[in-house]
User: Fold this.
Amino acid sequence: MAEYKRLNPKCQIAMYVSNAISMAVLVGIFFVIKYFITQDGEYTLPEYTDTVALIVFGILAVYMIIGPIIYYRRYRYIIDNDKVDVRQGIFFIRRTLTPIERIHQVDVSRGPVLSLLGLANVAITTAGGVANVTYLEIPEAERVAEELNALVTKILKEGRKDESQ
Amino acid sequence: MNPNEDGWFRAHWTIIIVNSISFLIVLLLFRFWTRGIFEENSELYMYANLATLGLLAAAIFYPWRWWRLTHYRLTPNGLEKKRETWFRLDKTVPYGKIASVNLKRMIFNRILGTSIVEVHANSGPSAIVAEAQIYLKAEDAERLRAELNARISGEIKEDVFQDKVEAEFESLLKFTAKDSIIQGIFGVPTSNLLASFFFLFPTAISFFTDSQEVAWTFMLIVLFSYLVPVVATILKYYDFGVRRIGDTIHIKHGAIRNYASSFETVKVNAIRVRKPFFARIIGKSCIEAEVVGMGEEMDTPLLCLMVKDSVIPDVIAELVPEFAENTDSRRQPPKARLVLFLEAVISTAILAPIVYLAANSIVTFINEFVAFPLFFDFMPLAFAGLVALWLFYWMHRRFQIETLALGEETMTVVGGVVDRVRVTMMYDRVQIVEARSNPLSLPFGLSRCSFSMLSSKGAVKEKSGYFETEMLENIGDILVERIKSGKRSYSYKSF
Assistant:
């Protein structure tokens, strides 16, 4: 019976970089909105605005720091001849099971951050939705995609053979 | 379309123009609307112009780069798409999973002499979004389409959704105009009804504050958001008839536009017995079918208009006996009550203060125009209290209502505090099973499960209540076992 695999520890770096970018964007949006509201002097924000913003960003920062550690420690996946089984989550734990036979197509994608770290995401598309296996090393992701595509093709051919008999 | 030695080809260069245009329009509109702001400050005006030029350049550069680095190829197994921009993508659509290959020509295509080849796989988050859209010269698009169809050869499913004028058939049940009126009035989701009537509140305020024009505007919103859909539904389901002949279900209805559709029962993934709140009061329900591949219609077909609850099992047994399996429903375990209670506490802690502040602002505003009696000052507190009561009642009812039944071939999920819904789906049509626990349910070993399947509008998820995590995760294992044992009735060709 196949055993659950874990992710490469580099995934935490990828998540930290993404989180840092997200935080920078959120802080930027906050300051831009604050500037446009208050620039004419016609409107003023309540006095507690900065305090509330600081608390909210503080909570977000804590989540963004500890989140990747928990995500990495919790993430497990199995890809075998029957199914793709992924267990993941930080506060919300989920187990996603996708039978191989349901798979329509498999995509490998990576943005600039993942490319730098040599990681990629595999998106498994079925008729009913998409399941993802994230932060795999690029060779592993390509191998997984190739194997899944081969399995899907094999199942399709066997199905055609059954129908013609 | 000139494939290189490895068979890779690019889309026609005119896609650069297409991809640039939308962004350019948005940019120009933004620049037009903000011209007043920037012209007051010359330094900011200069920066704004520089930024605009930069964005203009990006609007052309990035589509060009996308076009240059995106390639397609026909392989023995499927259509491959490779994108080597900063956001890389390698995608393969197997021929066996392609549902249709369409050619589309819009106005700019006709002007530029191109066509769009759309490849639909009836999969993914939306069945109506193409898996690939390739812009090519018109003759190249024709050739690609022919080539794809040849490679698919025999895998293309016949379009069973042919709008054809059906001969008169004897409907299973006799539906009158009164039934279509009841469907129109009581078949609307209660949330839509409440949203429409929500505008009655500002209408009343506007009348009180002598803003007649505003009041009539809100009144028109109420009329149009409620009345128009009701009338449209009544006209749509007028003269409704449904019959099963062999393995095909035939439906006809319509007063002004005639709808006549047929679909094979093998395309039905699930049936949904819907009882909106006001329909429950009069003891009626309707039956919907989640049917794959409705194409342009994008509607969930009704198998039965609002009828008495006692008639529903007989209609299901007659039309879709595959979904008539009798199984015992499991109720949520007692621990779920505590989880739902904690959810109510957290929801109240968040929502009640917001409602209080909002109600307080409204009362303060109204008090400027109309002198209300003293007890109106307690209205915000009363609203917040009502919200809290409602949330606790909601969670209590969720515990009572949400059940799960696991049969041999089907499973049934019941939910909906206001609008009751009972969904019966075949194991073999479920694509992904996901058991999810949150910080409140995790200590109790409970989760909620969502079942993804394909419907007429694309992917849809049905959710269960709180049950033991182990039991829910086992459902996914049941699916895999059915496939391994060959017991499943799932046909890869169906999807």
Q: What stands out?
A: Chain A has a mean pLDDT of 87. Chain A touches chain B at residues 82-83, 85, 89, 91-99, 101-102, 104-112, 115, 120, 125-131, 142, 145, 149, 152-153, 155-156, 159-160, 163 (CB under 8 Å). The CA atoms of residues 51 and 57 of chain A lie 10 Å apart.
